[in-house]
Amino acid sequence: MSITYIGARIGMFILVVWLATTVIFFLPRIASDRNPVRERLVMMAATGNLATGMEKVVAAYEEEYGLDQPLYLQYIRYLSSLVRGDLNYSLINYPTRVWDMIVQRMPYTLGLVGISVLTAFALGSLSGATLAWPGAPKWLKGALPVFLTLSPIPYFMLAIMLMFLFAVRHQWQPEWWPLLPLAGATSVTTVYDGWNMDRILDTIYHSILPAMSIILSQIGFWALGMRGMMVTTQGEDYVTLAQMRGLKPSRVFSLYGMRNATLPQLTSLALAMSLIFSGVILVEVIYRYPGMGTLLYNAIAGFDYFVIYGVVFVLIVMVAASTFILDIVYPFIDPRVRRAA
Amino acid sequence: MRDLGAEPTQSSAAIQAEAETSSGTSYSALSQIGYYLLHERMLSIGLFMLIALLALWLIGGQIVDPKLADPISGPQTASPQSKYWLGTDFNGRQVLPLMVHGAPLTLRIGLFAGVFGLGIGILLGFLGGYMRGPVDAFIRIISDVFITIPSLAVLVVVASTIKESAGLSVNMMGLIVASLSWMWPTRVIRAQVLSMRESNYVEVARLNGMGDLEIIFRELMPNLFPFLAASFVGAMASGILAAVGLEALGLGPQHEPTLGMTIYWSLYYGAVISNWWWWYGPPILLVAWIFISLYLIAAGLDKWANPRLRQSL
Questions:
Q1: I need a labelling partner for A202 at 20 to 30 A (CA). Which of A191, A282, A337, B100 fits?
Q2: B98 lies in which domain range?
Q3: Which of residues 271 through 290 in chain A touch B, CB cutoff 8 A?
Q4: pTM for this one?
Q5: DSSP readout, A36-47?
Q6: Is B158 on the interface with A (CB under 8 A)?
Q7: Does residue B311 fall inside a structural domain?
Q8: Which residues of chain B make contact with A286, given a CB cutoff of 8 A?
Q9: B189-216: per-residue pLDDT in tens?
C-alpha cells in the first residue's frame, strides 16, 4: 500500500466531512431566514430558563453568529470551532459540554453498529455463497425469500415488530415464549458503578432485540449480493482449474470462491455505511437504548440545538471514518489493489 | 470496480434481440415493456402491490369520510370492533380513516423525491457522461461524496431549523427529502451514458448527422428506460425512508397524519407497552407494503436491464 493510496483516502475523508459540514451550515440558512438557535436563546432568557453562567454562552454566540456578522466570517468561525472539537454547551443541561455527552453515548452506538453489521455481513455472505454453490441445503433456499422480504423494511419498523413479539406479554404466547427487555441498556433495578462483567452481560442481554432488528433486515441484502457474485465466480477459469487440480472442495469454495466474491461486497458495505448508521440511530430511539440516537431524539424534543448539531457532526465523522477504514482494509484482501496502490 | 458501465449496453441489445425473436415483430419500446411485464414476475408483483394500494386509496377516499380521521371522532384507544374497524387512537382518531388519509401523504413525499431525484440525476448524469472531462470529474466526485454523507443527519439539521421557525408541512417534507435524492440516479445514469455514447449505434447516428439532443432523446433515452425507471423508484424509496426516519425522530408535519407521524404519535403515547397494536400496526404494515413493492419493482427493472442477473436468480 503506497503513500498516495492512503493519501487519497485521507483526502476523501476530509472532503466528505468538510462538504457535509458546509451543507449543514448553509442549507438551513437558505431554507429559512430566521435563526432558531438565537430565537431559542432569547426565549430561554425571556422565560427565565437561562442557567447561571449561560450568559457567557449567549454572548459568545452573539459575537460569533450574530446577525451583524457577515456570513463568511460566521462560516470560518464555525469550521474552526469544529476543527478544535468545540461543540459548545448543552442548552438544557447547561454546564455540560456537548462533547462529553456524546462521548458517554458513543460506545453504545458503535457497539450496536459493529456487532450487528459484522454478524449480518458474515451470516449473509456465508449463506449467499452456500446458496450459489451446488448442494445448498433446502431450508436455506426456503429462508432466502423470507429474508429478502424483510430487507427493504426500515430497521426501526422491524424493531417495533420485534418489540411487539418478544418484549410484550400477549395472551396468545405460550408459557415458554421468551420475553426480552423492552428498553434501556441495563435493567432499571440494578445500579452499576463502572464497568464489570455483570454490567457487560446485562448490556448484551438488553442489546439482543435492537441488534436483531438490524441483522434480520440486512441478511437478505448481503446474501443476495454474495450469491450473485458467487455465480459469476463459479464460471471463472481459475475455479475450474482449481477443481481440476483436485483441490478439496472446501478449499476451492473458501479461498477461490468466497475470497474473490467478497470484494464487491466490501464496496457495497462502504456505500451502505451511511444508511446503516442512520438506521441504528432510529432503532436506538425505539428501544430507548442510551446511544447517540436517543440523545438526538431528546435534543430534538427539547430544541437543544447545540446537542443536535454536535450529534449530527459526530455521526458524519463516524460514517466517513468507517468508509475510510474499509478502504484501507480493501487492499489487504485484494492483492491487485495492493499492487496497483 | 465502481464503474458498472460496460455490461448493461450489451444487455439491452440482447433484450432487444430476445424480444424480436420471441414476438417476431420489430422492436418498439412498448412491446419491450409489455414483454417484460408478462415475463418478469418480480416487476409485475411489485406493480400490482403498488396499484392495489392506489386503488385502496381511491376507493377508500370515496367511502371513508376524512372527518373521521380528526381527533375525538371516536372514543379513546378503542380496540377494533364493528363500528371502528381498526379501532381508534389515543386522541380518538379512527385508525382506518387515518390510514386512508395518511398513505397518500406519505406516497406524495416519495413522489417529490422520485421526480426531483430523477430530474437532477438525468441533468447531471447526461452532463457528466456526455461532456466528460473536468465537468464529469466534478459531478462524479460530488455524487460519490454525497453518497457517503448520512443524509438523515443533514436532513435532521434542516428539518429542526424549519420546524422551529416555520412549522413543517407535507410538501415541505417532500422538498427536504427530495434535496438529497439525486445521488444514486446521477451515478447510475452517468455510468450508462458514458458507456452508451461509445456504442456503435450512437456512432452510426452521429455519422448520419444527428445532433447531440436528437441522439440523447431518440437513441439514448429509450435504451436508458429501465435505468431511469429504476432510478425513479429508488429515489422514491429513499425519500420515503428518509421522511419516515425524520418523522420517527419527531421532525415531521405535526398536523398532518402521514404514516410516519402516526407511528411517531403511537410511540409517543407508549402504544407498544400499552399493547394498542391496532394503532401502530396498520401504518407499519402499510409502509412495509410500500417498501416491498418498490423493492420488487426495482429488482425487476434491474433484471430487465441486466440479463446476467436474470440467469443467476
A1: A282
A2: 35-74+84-305
A3: 271, 273-275, 277-279, 281-282, 285-286
A4: 0.86
A5: HHHHHHHHHHHT
A6: yes
A7: no
A8: 248, 267
A9: 998 888 888 888 888 888 888 888 888 8
Query: Which positions in chain A touch B309 (Cβ < 8 Å)?
Result: 228
- Hey, is the C-beta of B291 within 8 angstroms of any chain A C-beta? yes
Q: Determine which helix (DSSP H) or strand (DSSP E) holds B57, and give its type and residue range.
A: helix B41-63
A112 within a domain of the structure (yes/no): yes
The answer on pLDDT for B85 being more than 80 is: no
B284-305 pLDDT, tens per residue? 999 999 999 999 998 888 877 7
SS3 at position A83: helix
Report yes or no on B313 lying in a domain.
Answer: no
Instruction: Note which residues in 212-241 of chain A have CB less than 8 A from chain B.
Output: 227-228, 231-232
Chain B partners within 8 Å of A32 (Cβ): 161-162, 165-166
Q: Is residue B295 part of a domain?
A: yes
Nearest CA distance, B200 vs chain A (angstrom)? 27
A316 and B150: CB-CB below 8 Å? yes
- Residue B163: which pLDDT band, with cuts at 50, 70 and 90? confident
pLDDT tens digits, A323-336 = 999 988 888 888 77
Quick one: pLDDT at residue A212? Answer: 94
> What is the CB neighbour count within 10 angstroms for residue B181?
28
Q: Hunting for cell 430544541 — which residue is that?
A: A303
Structural domains counted in chain A: 1
- Residue-number span of the structural domain to which A166 is assigned: 104-300
User: Which residue type is seen at A113?
Assistant: V
Q: Is there a domain that residue B128 lies in? A: yes
Contacts of B248 in chain A (CB under 8 A): 156, 282, 285-286
Give me the CATH number covering residue B52: 1.10.3720.10
Count of the separate structural domains present in chain B: 1
CATH number at residue A292: 1.10.3720
Instruction: Tally Cβ neighbours within 10 Å of residue A199.
Output: 15
Residue A69: its H or E element = none
Per-residue pLDDT, B297: 92
* Reported ipTM: 0.87
Please name the residues in contact with A264: beta carbons below 8 A apart, sequence gap of 6 or more.
Answer: A225, A229, B1
- Domain-located, residue A82: no
Q: What residues of chain B, 165 to 204, have a C-beta less than 8 Å from chain A?
A: 165-166, 176, 179
The whole-angstrom distance between A64's CA and the closest CA on chain B is 19
Residue with cell 442548552: A91
Residue B104 to residue B108: CA distance in whole angstroms: 6
Cβ neighbours of residue B264 closer than 8 Å, sequence gap 6 or more: B247, B248, B250, B252
Residue A98 placed within a domain: no
